Amino acid sequence: MPLYANFEETHNAAEAFLAGNIFQAFDFCTQYDGWLLTHLCILFEKKGMLDKPVYANLEHGETIQMGCLEYFKIVYAACIKNECGLWKEGFIYLLSCGKIGKEAIHEHLKLLDIEDEHRLKEVAEFCVANDMKEEGLALYEKKATACFEVQDYRKAIHYYELAENQECLDKVLIKIIQDYSATGNLIDVGIRKSYDSTYYKAYNYLLIMNEHMDNLDYTAAGDKLKELVQWVNLPQFVLPIIFQEGVKLVENKECRLDADTLLMLKKIWKLLQRKEPLDPEFDTFLDTSAITLSRALDRMTE
């Protein structure tokens, strides 16, 4: 018997029952009437007439043995989920079947439409609440990865948060910072939970500094830059971006950076000079910015 049945109304189980072919009738019911199937199964079990085990074939080729009642609960659950849309009721039936029921839920989850975000969250929450947290978080992660692939970073961050996947959160933040370096646009992804990742800290510094610059508050932007350049654990890939932002503030006449900040920018400049060339345009920028920094430092001593 197949573990997941096709419910087209193609057989009349009654004939098999009348002929005394009980198990053949049950098998026909998997294609005809799931409701009748399960309740007849309960009746026959109470009468002690279901002493024969059922062997079910799994997708990966394994054959497993289970009780008749378990088997027909699984079939009925698939029926009310697929035909009636009663996924929660179906999953509750499956949870009453122990390990094999959870395996069946796992197979159903593979077919879940992750574009339906309301249903996705409902199913994930159900899994988490019913000792299937790993499966629930995996649904969030699947949705997050799909969002990341189409560059919907806000949603990717949201679902990776729900999936409790900090490594993938960092992956998104790194990509956002890299895109910012290329485009000059830094999006606010709206992280709400407490999150102390190194990459989030770098992103947050840049975000706040940009907000100050957009609001023409160059003093506050300069203060945030100072905090950033003095940060001991500053990720190395962020250095070119920090340096570019710093030079913008140095060139802004309304911003007054102190000597310590200017010296830290010069230190970053030296580090970038020692690295492999990034691109000809950036190399030219490094050459001209060296003059800008030197003049700014000279003014500090006048």
Task: Write structural notes for this entry.
The protein is rod-shaped. It has helices at 13-18, 22-29, 34-46, 68-82, 87-95, 98-110, 117-129, 133-149, 153-162, 166-183, 198-214, 218-229, 239-251, 259-274, 280-301; strands at residues 54-57, 63-66. It has 302 residues and is mainly α. It starts with 12 loop residues before the first helix and ends with a helix. Helices cover 67% and strands 3% of the residues. A two-stranded antiparallel ribbon has the order 1-2. Strand 1 and strand 2 form a beta hairpin. The protein has 2 domains: 7-129, no CATH class; 186-301, no CATH class.
Residue share in helix: 55-70%
Oligomer: single chain
**Percent range for β-strand residues:** under 5%
What would you call the structural class? Answer: mainly alpha
In round numbers, the mean pLDDT is 81
Strand order of the largest sheet: 1-2
Profile the largest sheet.
2 strands, antiparallel
Q: Uncertain spans, ≥5 residues at pLDDT below 50?
A: 1-10
Radius of gyration: 31 Å
What's the overall geometry?
rod-shaped
Instruction: State the end-to-end CA separation.
Output: 91 Å
Say how many strands there are: 2
Helix and strand succession? HHHEEHHHHHHHHHHHH
Per DSSP, the total helix count is 15
Domains counted in the coordinates: how many? Answer: 2
